[in-house]
Amino acid sequence: MAAVDADPFQKAIDHLEAERAILTNFTNFWKDLSSHISSLEQTLRQKSETLESKLQSLDSTTKEALESLATREESLPSKELAASERVERLKQAALAQIEEHSGALPKGADVATSLRFLCLKMDADGLWRFLIARRKELATIRAELEPAVADAVDPASLVLQALEDFVFRRADKVGLSDQRWACGMLLRALSADEGVAASVKERAMVLAEAWKEKIHGSGEGGLASNAAEVQMFLQLLVTYKLVEKFEMDYLKKFVVAFASRRDMPKLAVSLGFNEKMG
Q1: Where are the beta strands (DSSP E) in the chain?
Q2: Phi, psi for 233 (deg, rounded to 5)
Q3: Any idea what DSSP says for residue 4?
Q4: How many degrees, rounded to 5, is the angle at CA 248 between CA 243 and CA 253?
Q5: Dihedral through CA 146, CA 148, CA 150, CA 151, nearest 10?
Q6: Which residue, among 203, 134, 191, 132, has the nearest Cα to 163 in the 3D structure?
Q7: Virtual CA dihedral for 107, 108, 114, 117, nearest 10 degrees?
Q8: Crossing angle (nearest 10°) for helices 155-168 and 198-216
Q9: CA-to-CA distance for 187 and 159, rounded, in angstroms?
Q10: Tens of pLDDT along 242-258?
Q11: How far is it, in rounded angstroms, from Cα 221 to Cα 140?
Q12: What is the dihedral of CA 149, 152, 155, 161, to 10 degrees?
């Protein structure tokens, strides 16, 4: 009997083994691909959820901001009305005082009453002259001046008028130091938080520019060496919101030059010098 040729069978077996290897590789590849796709889907789902959460948060924040803005807009008329009523109330009080005393200081009035009367009357000239005349009563003046100035119809305008008298009408140097002291007291009595009308701020800017020229002018005998007046100039810029109109290096020179003055550190912070200066 003839022997069976095993070669065709071996070839068939080898072919099947090769096919199985290919199938196994394909199966593994498919598993890896499926796993990768699942991972991508999970990542995309997480990112989508995160984005949705952020969008909801943004919508909520935007809604709150719009509601807050609407509330502020609604409150503006009431604030304007309150401010208008305050001005009218102070105006009527001033007119009543003036009418009662025929435009003159109440006879025998004490310092507090006199200061309030002059402030209500918006009499800047009379006010700084009264301060000089009663300078010996400094303790009382310090206690009563700030509330009296606050009672004026326009405190910022009242104090500015006194400063304008001092800067623009200083040809006669007799009594200049007393007037400087009185104006310094008025400027310190005016709160830095006091509202300043646009027209008053414009006047203050004109005054600041003129004062700056006088500080550097030769005709004033070297005002730059007068620490008290330089400090008043800097206080004017802070109180009337004019600091940004001047170069910081220019202001820094004054702060450094007169750093030993008692109020200069606090004033330096108000000017924007928060860091230690060399």
Answers
A1: none
A2: -60, -45
A3: P
A4: 115
A5: 170
A6: 203
A7: -30
A8: 30
A9: 6
A10: 999 999 988 988 888 88
A11: 34
A12: -100
Are 165 and 124 spatial neighbours (Cβ–Cβ below 8 Å)? yes
Looking at residue 194, what DSSP letter applies? Answer: S
> What is the per-residue pLDDT for 148?
93
Give this prediction's pTM.
0.61
Tokens 């007068």 label which residue?
226
Distance CA 105, CA 92 (A): 17
- Residue indicated by tokens 């200061």: 115
Condensed to tens digits (0 to 9), the pLDDT of residues 135-176 reads 999 999 999 999 999 988 899 999 999 999 998 876 555 578
- Alpha-carbon distance of 264 to 237, in angstroms, equals 14
CA-to-CA distance for 151 and 97, rounded, in angstroms? Answer: 12
Domain extents in the chain:
60-154
Beta carbons of 208 and 167 less than 8 angstroms apart: no
Side chain identity, residue 208? A
Task: Pick out the chain residues at pLDDT < 70.
Answer: 1-6, 73-84, 86-88, 90-106, 170-174, 192, 217-225, 275-278
Determine the 3-state secondary structure of 59 from DSSP: helix
d(CA 157, CA 37): 75
For residues 184 and 163, give the distance between their C-alpha atoms in angstroms, rounded to a whole number.
Answer: 9
Extract the tokens encoding 220.
Answer: 């004033």
Q: How many Cβ atoms are within 10 Å of 8's Cβ, its own excluded?
A: 9
Per-residue pLDDT at 272 = 86
DSSP E strands: which ranges in 132-254?
A: none
